[in-house]
Amino acid sequence: MKKILMAAALLTASVIGATAQTTPFLGQNIIVAFDYCPNGYVRTSGQILPINPYVALFTVLGTTYGGNGTSNFALPSTQPIFTKNRRVFTECVALTGVYPTQN
Questions:
Q1: Under 8 Å CB-to-CB from 87, ≥6 apart: which residues?
Q2: Pairing of strands 72-74, 41-43
Q3: How far from 40 is each of 27, 30, 80, CA to CA, in Å?
Q4: 56 and 98 in contact (C-beta within 8 Å)?
Q5: Which of 14, 37, 55, 57 could lock 92 by a disulfide, CB 3.0 to 4.6 Å apart?
Q6: 20 torsion bin: left (phi>0), alpha (psi -120 to 50), beta (else)
Q7: Residue 72 class from Cβ within 10 Å (0-12 exposed, 13-18 middle, 19+ buried)?
Q8: Residue range 19-56, pLDDT digits in tens
Q9: How many Å apart are CA 17 and CA 65, to the nearest integer?
Q10: E strand or H helix at 61, and its extent?
C-alpha cells in the first residue's frame, strides 16, 4: 500500500509541475532571453498597425498606445529590461491567440 501511495504522490507531483502556455492570449506580452520574438509575436516597439488585418487585436488594445482608431492603432512601446550583466531581454506582444475574457 505504501508503494502505491508513493507512486501516486510522485505521479501527482510531476503532473502539477510548471507548464508552458501553448496558446497565448491575444495581445499578451512576453519577455524572452533571446534576441528575437517567436512566431506569432512582434517586438513591443510602438509600431503602428492597420486595423483591418488585426481587428481582434484592435478590440483588445484599442488606441491605448496610439493610432487614430479609424484605420490604425499602435502596439505598446516598452523600455529595455537589462540583465545583471547588461544584456537586454526581448519584449514581444502576441498578434494572435485566445481572446481574453473579463471577469
A1: none
A2: unpaired
A3: 11, 12, 21
A4: no
A5: 37
A6: beta
A7: middle
A8: 657 899 999 999 999 999 999 999 999 999 999 999 99
A9: 36
A10: helix 55-61
Extents of the domains making up the chain: 21-94
pLDDT of residue 20: 59
Helices (H), 30-73: 55-61
Mean residue pLDDT of the chain comes to 85
The three cell numbers locating residue 76:
505598446
Count of helix runs (H) and strand runs (E) in the chain: 2, 5
The C-alpha cell that represents 5 in the structure block: 501511495
